[in-house]
């Protein structure tokens, strides 16, 4: 007889503060050390990079949108999806030159997505929301951070 696998999650309240001042050198170094630990985590399953597949799917859907609002449709039609596809292709070629490792990476590394223990007297631990982690280039998180 087949039964589904149920996974449980234990949720606790943790006192954290957001990382609003990323310009402090010690804080930036602590974040980098913590993220490196995440990047070293071995996740079961495929190590295949999802970035380019996701970009292709997004562009396919985005290029076919239609809006009822005439003004929105007019602005939308000014987007050259061919230029965007060319830029993505060029970026894909450039990242191949880097030969960057594919790691378990956070893909929206904004300061609001990082939290730390309020207790400054001990080693700081960084807490990161986990819903947008997947296999990605290690260097891509830096690019995404600087883009924001």
UniProtKB/TrEMBL annotation:
InterPro entries documented for this protein: Kinase-like_dom_sf
Signal peptide: none
GO process terms (BP): phosphatidylethanolamine biosynthetic process
One of the Pfam families matching this protein, by short name: Choline_kinase
Entry EC no(s): 2.7.1.82
GO molecular function: ethanolamine kinase activity
Associated pathway: Phospholipid metabolism; phosphatidylethanolamine biosynthesis; phosphatidylethanolamine from ethanolamine: step 1/3
GO cellular component: cytoplasm
UniProt xrefs under PANTHER family: CHOLINE/ETHANOALAMINE KINASE (PTHR22603), ETHANOLAMINE KINASE (PTHR22603:SF66)
Family membership noted in the UniProt record: Belongs to the choline/ethanolamine kinase family.
Protein name, as recorded: ethanolamine kinase
Species this protein is from: Coptis chinensis
Organism classification: Eukaryota, Viridiplantae, Streptophyta, Embryophyta, Tracheophyta
């Amino acid at each position: 007889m087949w039964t589904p696998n149920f996974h449980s999650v234990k949720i606790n309240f943790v006192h954290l503060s957001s990382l609003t001042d990323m310009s402090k050198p010690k804080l930036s170094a602590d974040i980098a050390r913590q993220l490196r630990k995440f990047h070293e985590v071995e996740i079961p399953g495929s190590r295949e990079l999802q970035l380019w597949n996701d970009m292709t799917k997004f562009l396919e859907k985005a290029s076919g949108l239609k809006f009822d609002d005439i003004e929105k449709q007019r602005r939308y039609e000014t987007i050259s999806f061919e230029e965007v596809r060319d830029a993505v292709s060029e970026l894909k070629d450039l990242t191949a030159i880097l030969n960057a490792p594919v790691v378990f990476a956070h893909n929206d590394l904004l300061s609001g997505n990082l939290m730390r223990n309020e207790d400054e007297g001990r080693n700081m631990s960084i807490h990161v929301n986990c819903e947008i982690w997947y296999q990605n280039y290690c260097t891509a998180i830096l690019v995404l951070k600087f883009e924001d």
